[in-house]
């Protein structure tokens, strides 16, 4: 029982998805059809991208980029803008999770050294919003996008065209969010810590693997090739990276695949869920994301509707809102909660207010005449 509570605290979504999968097996007993439930392509691509991003992060690539840009900043508004928009734009390529894992600790260090601790809450909250909303533009920006892009079979252009209006509005909102508050001079010339040099051999390998992964995502190469290339390459150059992938997330995907597959074989249940979703995919996606977060929502709801475009919009717009609406948001909160003198209540208040404002505006945009 203690182990269950420990897992619930550490990864509640994994535990709940596992329980749902097991319970569903009482209604649909395990058989050969179970093997057809699992989307092996998505799992392989997720695993490969995780390994490559961990490799880039290990080499300090993203921090080097941040230092390069930040060296030109002269005031706190510019500093905030750089820290926020690094998360916004890089999340499109490195995922929202990796963007926050990389830049939130960097932000805490930077603002602490420069005596700007009072800006920690607003900057980290905006970084979190930026990473969640920037990541929605591309198929590799977040796990739910990769899954729905693969499931829908839509082209890259079609995918981007669906999400571009919301991404553009998000960018405008983020720009406007930078103006409130006092602009103060800041000097960063002497605060950067030395970052160790990169291993060019490893970095080249990671870059090639990343390009291969992109080709596999765009269906230009078979997923089996990138999976084999990733495993074999890392076995030779950096075997520990293979163990740093988020296996909890991969297991969560498998559990939801099993649950959805079993529910789909129960006509009464699948019919009820399909009727609830029909014509309401966007709003149901937003609402369910607030409760169970957007990755599980995408996995769960996609099994009971063929209208994947509005569902794609819904689970992405559902990223802002509650702290658990996007599990990436928990990364920022946990990092901030470990800082000296942190004010958790103030953080949650600012986080909720800012996120609900962004969510309200984006929902209003979704109601404008268009495809949905």
TrEMBL record:
Give the main location: membrane
Q: Where found, per UniProt?
A: Cell membrane
Q: Which GO terms describe its biological process?
A: transmembrane transport
- Alphabetically list the UniProt keywords: Cell membrane, Membrane, Transmembrane, Transmembrane helix, Transport
Q: Which GO terms describe its cellular component?
A: plasma membrane
Q: What is this protein called?
A: Citrate transporter
Question: In which domain of life is the source organism classified?
Answer: Bacteria
Q: Does the entry feature the keyword Protease, yes or no?
A: no
Membrane-related topology note: Multi-pass membrane protein
Record has Nucleotide-binding as a keyword: no
Species of the source: Candidatus Eisenbergiella merdavium
| Transmembrane region(s) | 12-30, 82-113, 120-138, 158-179, 203-221, 241-260, 312-333, 345-368
Q: PANTHER family recorded for this chain?
A: TRANSPORTER ARSB-RELATED
Domain Citrate transporter-like residue range list = 12-304
